[in-house]
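Blinded run. Sample ID left blank on purpose so nobody reads anything into the name before looking at the predicted structure. Input follows.
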Amino acid sequence: MKSAPGHARPPSESEGSGVFKASSDGPALAYQAALNGLQYEYGRGTVSCRVCLGPAFSSHSGRIHGGLIATLFDEVTGHVAYRTSGVPMVTTLLRVRFVEPMLPEVEYRIDVNVGAEVGGVLDVTAELLGARLVAAASAKFRPLFRGQSIDHALAHAEEKS
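Blinded prediction complete.
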């Protein structure tokens, strides 16, 4: 496994790195496993996860396709929006800015920050980082149930429990 320039080699899976490594021969199945296998680290006001995608995720140019990067951002920011609000959330907007290529078999970190909730819409930002910024995203989420504020959805969820 390669490591991002300027980074030491990541520990192997047997060393308990907490990094999800996806390298299945079937890209669709491998990607679903990658999404299900993401491990999150919760800090003060931030959430991070590490990911290392294998060659099965490469495009014809040998880089990870931008659509997969956008899907990773949607999955990770959506997870954080749900954990923050406590209710099912849906993405209403996802913007991704690509800066550098993401390469297979290199460990990356995704850092997520939750912003303000205004009018029932939660703002979330994220960065995909190797040795440098690879891509950045901003997303907006609302509760799954239309017409409900996050506070109303939380109260409804508490009634059911």
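Unblinding after everyone has recorded impressions. The first strand starts at residue 20 and ends at 22.
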